[in-house]
Automatic annotation (TrEMBL):
Lineage top rank: taxon: Bacteria
Domain ApeA N-terminal stretches: 6-195
Protein name: ApeA N-terminal domain-containing protein
InterPro entries reported in the protein's UniProt record: ApeA_NTD
Pfam families: ApeA_NTD1
Protein's organism: Gulosibacter molinativorax
């Protein structure tokens, strides 16, 4: 008997471009815009200004002005820049008017390139925000433009670019309302490094990609054990220390002969004068805890000691990045001293000292 001709199939799309005339047109793209959780707060670029009018000590009226400020160039690579804009219109409730501000990372070139070329820049800036806030920040939205699919009238003439929203699971976009952050949630802000600092970061993540991708990737270990965090951050420090030696002119052969603690010490030495704790004992502490979770025949590290090693490792790498991006020494010292992780480190010192005195 013949079949019914009915079957089942599945289609998988990397990107869904809402409003696009043709999918193949967007195999390469000219521009990509991305919103990232916390970006607007970190940069501090605003479109809305307010001027209250007072009467008898009370606010009588408020003048609101919406004006998009100039874009901020941050790198030559794909003409990367920060772009602020705003929206104004009816809200979801009756008689409601809403104003929303947006800050986006934008890359835009005359000749179309692959999506991954754009996304490398956008992911790098997202990872910078993650490191500075030490939170798993995500993309909130994407928009794309293609020069061959611009705004056209009925006569076929082109009248500028059109930016269309993108739906994708490839970038790990947030589901639900974006995370809200305050300026003091970041170790340092855009004003501390400027566009040049962001440009330095894009160079840094290329040069030290192996170590930095692992170190920042720790933030993706949601729900994983402390041991898993230590294992990954331990590998990241080893790679970063090795690459720093190579950068300093040490041959790869000689660099590979350095002990684990020596490689960690290379990273620590660059920022020891800004750390709010002594960096002298950190390389051996990380070595002990890393070896303890890596090898089954070694003693499992004490929980507090493991947490101390992990938090110190986080602060060392954040300090190292801040220093390389141009944050002043005084600003970095103060920021690290006030950071919640540094305060927890001091508490752990006290808890470990108390536990040691009881054993004695």
């Amino acid at each position: 008997m013949g079949g019914t001709g009915i079957g089942e199939g599945r289609l998988r799309f990397d990107y869904t471009i809402l409003g696009a005339m043709s999918g193949p047109t967007y195999e390469q793209i000219n521009g990509l815009r991305s919103e990232i959780e916390g970006l607007g707060t970190w940069v501090g670029l605003r479109s809305l200004s307010t001027e209250p009018e007072l009467e008898a000590g009370r606010v009588k009226a408020v003048d609101l002005r919406l004006e998009s400020p100039p874009n901020i160039p941050v790198a030559r690579r794909l003409n990367a820049e920060f772009r602020a804009n705003w929206r104004y219109g009816p809200g979801t409730a009756p008689d409601e008017i809403t104003i929303s501000e947006r800050l986006q990372v934008q890359t835009n070139v005359k000749r179309g390139v692959d999506w991954d070329d754009h996304l490398r820049v956008h992911f790098s800036i997202r990872n910078l925000l993650r490191l500075v806030a030490w939170r798993e920040l995500k993309f909130a939205s994407h928009e794309v433009t293609r020069a061959t699919d611009g705004v056209r009238t009925l006569d076929g003439k082109r009248h500028g670019d059109i930016w269309l929203p993108v739906l994708t699971q490839r970038t790990g976009m947030t589901v639900g309302p974006p995370t809200k952050l305050r300026q003091n949630d970041f170790l340092f802000n855009f004003t501390d490094v400027g566009g040049k600092g962001v440009g330095r970061w894009l160079q840094l993540v290329t040069k030290f990609e192996r170590g930095l991708s692992l170190l920042i990737g720790v933030l993706d270990l949601d729900g994983a054990s402390l041991e898993a965090h230590i294992a990954q951050i331990g590998i990241g420090f080893e790679m970063l220390g090795y690459d720093l030696l190579v950068e300093a002119g040490i041959s790869r052969t000689q660099a590979s002969k350095r002990s684990y603690a020596e490689l960690v010490a290379v990273v620590t030495a660059a920022v020891e004068d800004v750390l709010p704790f002594s960096g002298a004992g950190f390389p051996d502490l990380l070595r002990r805890t890393y070896i303890g979770v890596k090898h089954a025949d070694r003693a499992r590290p004490d929980v507090n000691e493991g947490l101390l090693a992990y938090l110190q490792a986080v602060q060392v790498v954040r300090a190292w990045v801040g220093s390389r991006l141009g944050v002043s020494k005084g600003r970095l010292q103060q920021a690290l001293r006030d950071d919640a992780r540094s305060l927890r480190i001091q508490e752990l010192y006290g808890e470990l000292a108390l536990a040691g005195s009881k054993k004695a």
